[in-house]
Write a structure and sequence with these properties.
Layout lengths: L5 H15 L1 H45 L1
Length: 67
C-alpha cells in the first residue's frame, strides 16, 4: 500500500499535464534548465576567479621574505 508503482506515477503525470497543460510545462522546464545552467556557470566563474587570486599572493609572500 505504501509502494509507488509505475501505474500511479503515470496517473499523477497525466493529471499534472491536464492541470498545467503542455505549453506551461515546456516553459517551466526551459526556465528550470536555464536556471541550472546559470548556476553552474556562476560556480565555474567563482572557482576560476579564486584560483588566480591565491596564486597572486604566493609570489608577494616570497618577495617579502627575501627582504
Amino acid at each position: 500500500m505504501g509502494e509507488i508503482s509505475i501505474t500511479k506515477l503515470l496517473v499523477i503525470g497525466a493529471l499534472i499535464v491536464l492541470l498545467f497543460g503542455t505549453r506551461k510545462l515546456r516553459s517551466l522546464g526551459g526556465d528550470l534548465g536555464a536556471a541550472i545552467k546559470g548556476f553552474k556557470k556562476a560556480m565555474n566563474d567563482d572557482e576560476s576567479s579564486a584560483k588566480p587570486a591565491s596564486g597572486a599572493e604566493a609570489p608577494a609572500e616570497r618577495i617579502s621574505h627575501k627582504d
